[in-house]
């Protein structure tokens, strides 16, 4: 198992061991990265404590190394998944904002169109009323009444559309 520490990892390990030597306090969970002969990298977690002789003088280090490659892979996958979720959330929020803007535009369009159609329709119904006050024969009166009734139905429909757009 031939491995070498990466330069940054070697500095971190030496700094950790120096801290153990100077303070006498153990270092725990020091993460180091190694590079194997084939160029692949691996991660290990080191814990180190100072070994002393019978007189209390430092004589070496006691180190424990634990393979954390699976943990690192899981961590990397979790970070990728988290990033994907953040991107998906951002897209969903953008789509929701677009949908809201489209809904507002639709409501404004309905309101504007209802107003634009209602005004001339009121004019048509008013003119039919004036026409009916004139001396019309029975057939003309029947035709004018059909036009007036359909105009009022159309106006009611337009008013309902306007009310619906206000509710939204």
How do the strands of the widest beta sheet line up side by side? 1-2-3-4
Sketch the topology as an H/E string, one letter per element: EHEEEHH
Q: C-alpha Rg, in Å?
A: 42 Å
Q: What share of the residues lie within helices?
A: 55-70%
Question: How can the largest sheet be summarized?
Answer: 4 strands, antiparallel
Low-confidence stretches: none
What global shape is seen?
rod-shaped
Number of helices: 3
Structural class: alpha+beta
Number of strands: 4
**In angstroms, what separates the terminal alpha carbons?**
70 Å
> How confident overall, as mean pLDDT?
89
Strand content: 15-25%
Structural commentary:
The structure is a single chain. Helix 2 packs antiparallel against helix 3. The protein has 168 residues and is α+β, with helices and mostly antiparallel strands. Helices cover 66% and strands 21% of the residues. The two termini are 70 Å apart. A four-stranded antiparallel sheet has the order 1-2-3-4. The mean pLDDT is 89. It contains three helices and four strands; from the N terminus they run E-H-E-E-E-H-H.
């Amino acid at each position: 198992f031939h491995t070498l520490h990466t330069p940054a990892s070697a500095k971190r390990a030496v700094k950790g061991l120096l801290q153990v030597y100077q303070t006498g306090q153990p270092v725990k969970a020091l993460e180091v990265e190694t590079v194997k002969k084939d160029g692949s990298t691996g991660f290990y977690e080191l814990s180190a404590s100072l070994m002393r002789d019978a007189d209390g003088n430092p004589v070496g280090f006691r180190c424990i190394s634990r393979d954390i490659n699976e943990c690192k892979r899981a961590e990397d996958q979790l970070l990728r998944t988290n990033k994907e979720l953040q991107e998906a959330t951002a897209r969903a929020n953008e789509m929701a904002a677009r949908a809201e803007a489209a809904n507002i535009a639709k409501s404004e369009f309905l309101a504007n169109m209802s107003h634009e159609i209602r005004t001339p329709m009121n004019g048509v119904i008013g003119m039919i009323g004036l026409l009916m006050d004139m001396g019309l024969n029975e057939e003309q009166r029947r035709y004018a009444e059909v036009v007036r009734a359909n105009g009022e139905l159309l106006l009611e429909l337009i008013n309902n559309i306007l009310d619906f757009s206000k509710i939204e």
